[in-house]
Structure formats: C-alpha cells, structure tokens
Amino acid sequence: MLQTATKTTSETHGKFIWCELMTPDTKAAGDFYSSVIGWKINEMSMPDMPSYFLFEMGEGENCPGIGGMMTFPPELEGKLPPNWTGYVAVDDVDQTGRDYVSHGGQVQRQPEDIPGIGRFAVVADPHGAVLCIMTPIPPENPPRELGPGEVGSCGWHELYADDVDEAFAFYSTVFGWTKDHDFDMGAMGPYRIFAHGGEMTGGMMTRPEGVPMSCWCYYFVVEAIDAAIERVTGGGGQIVNGPVEVPGGSWIVQAMDPQGAFFCLTAGKR
User: Are 224 and 242 in contact (CB under 8 A)?
Assistant: First the structure.
C-alpha cells in the first residue's frame, strides 16, 4: 500500500492543465485539428528554437489556450511516434519527481525551467505511462479557462494501466486524486472514475490485450460525433474505434491523425 508522499498545498496540485502534440509536420497537423475541432493556431516564435504553436478556442488576443504543438526535438526524432502528452500542475516539480521515483516511477527528463512559462519534467508511472508535470508561472492576465464540457476543451483524460488498482493507488498518492466511482465492465474489470478537487476529470482501467502498453489518452470535445467523424476521415485521419455511446449519454471515437498521433473525441450527441 502506498503511503502519502507529498502534502498538497494548493488547489491546482494534480490538475490537468495542458495537452501537447509532438508531430513531424506542424502545418499539416494544425490544419487537420483546426478543421476537426475548431481550434485556432497561434504561432509563437522561440529564440534559437523552432516555433511553438498554441491551440486556442475563440477570437481575440486573450482567448483560452487548450494545448500546444511542436516538432520533434533532434534528440527524439525517429525514436518516438507522433503523440499527445498531458501536463499536470504540481506545487513542486522537483519534489513530485522524487515522489514518482520513490513509488516506483521514473523521471524521463529531469526538471528544467522554461523561461517565462514555468518548470517542468517528463515522468512515467510504475507501468510506464508518460506525463509531464509542471509548476507554471501564473500569467499576469490569465485567459478564461474552458469548462470540461465546452467544445474545444480536453474534456476527459483516460489511462490504460497494467493494473487499475495499482495505478489508482499511485496517482492518489502523488497527485491527490480521489475515487469518484467505479463502472463495472464485467470481465474487463472496473472503469474507475477519478476526481480532482471533487470534480470528475478522467477514468482509468486495466488495459485490454489489444493495447500494447500502458498509456494516457485525451478526449477533445466536439459538438456532434458523426459530423466530427466526417471531418476526421475527410482530412486524412482514421477512426480506429467507435462511435460508441458511453454511460451518461455521450458519444466517443478513438482516432489517428494523418501523421499517426492517437487522439479521441467526445460529444454530447451523435
């Protein structure tokens, strides 16, 4: 049984705050997700580095940012497939990295500062599922955050774990997540809904045989699932599962973008 590692001191510790796409073709990927989800692409020039691209929803200079996109850094090019990675806010990146290690996880990229943005690290849980952790620098004029059900937001975070009970024990210790409830999936075991600050934010389950490794998946909210499917396939993407109606009446699909990154969509109607 895991023991409490770090006493949280803020309401944001353990909160998903960002999603990031690493892709070999930022222009094609940006066009694809703009069409499928409706994001606006905002290019940020980086000194002595390739540009970073923001995914934003709405109009104006201070519209909500949902995530970002970057090309593969030279040290990772050819070593990883295109992928989405989530960022979780923590009070102390260095301490949380130590908590990961002391409870069987790994720090895959040591903590470092991003000037003007915050301090981050890349970590993996004991089953190998990768996340980024970050202590962000609060912006002077923070934009409005999209609610978890608003179109364009990342509305759900899902973990395929080697063992759902072990995974939940780990994350409840490191991030302070709590169990909201279990959904019985029969022979597949429970689908565990977890909460941050009393609000449901995602689910985790023991991975099926068809999922080769433990990993996180991210569900982006669209208005209607059938119309989104047409945009995915029309833009060169592929539907790999769904549409499926899930408890609560929402519809989901799992898909691959044209560059090969796995992503998911969710909507309140078919």
Answer: no
Instruction: Give the rounded distance of the alpha carbon of 41 from its chain centre.
Output: 18
Give the chain's domain count.
Answer: 2
Residue (of 117, 145, 147, 137) closest to 52 by Cα position: 117
Q: How far is CA 59 from CA 35, 41, 65, in A?
A: 16, 11, 11
pLDDT tens profile 1-22: 444 444 546 889 999 999 999 9
Write the DSSP symbol of residue 249: S
Which residues make beta-bridge pairs with 204? 159, 192
Q: How many CB atoms lie within 10 A of CB 163?
A: 15
Rounded CA separation 270/266 (Å): 10
| Local structure of residue 250 (DSSP, 8 states) | -
Q: Which domain holds residue 260?
A: 154-267
Same domain, 21 and 101: yes
Q: Are 114 and 44 in contact (CB under 8 A)?
A: no
Tell me if the pTM is above 0.90: yes
Token digits for 79? 């070593």
Mark whether 119 and 47 lie in a shared domain: yes
Q: Look at the block and give the residue holding tokens 């069409």.
A: 35
Is the model more confident about 139 or about 198? 198
Q: What distance in Å separates the CA atoms of residue 186 and residue 183, rounded to the nearest whole number?
A: 9
30 with 105, same domain: the answer is: yes
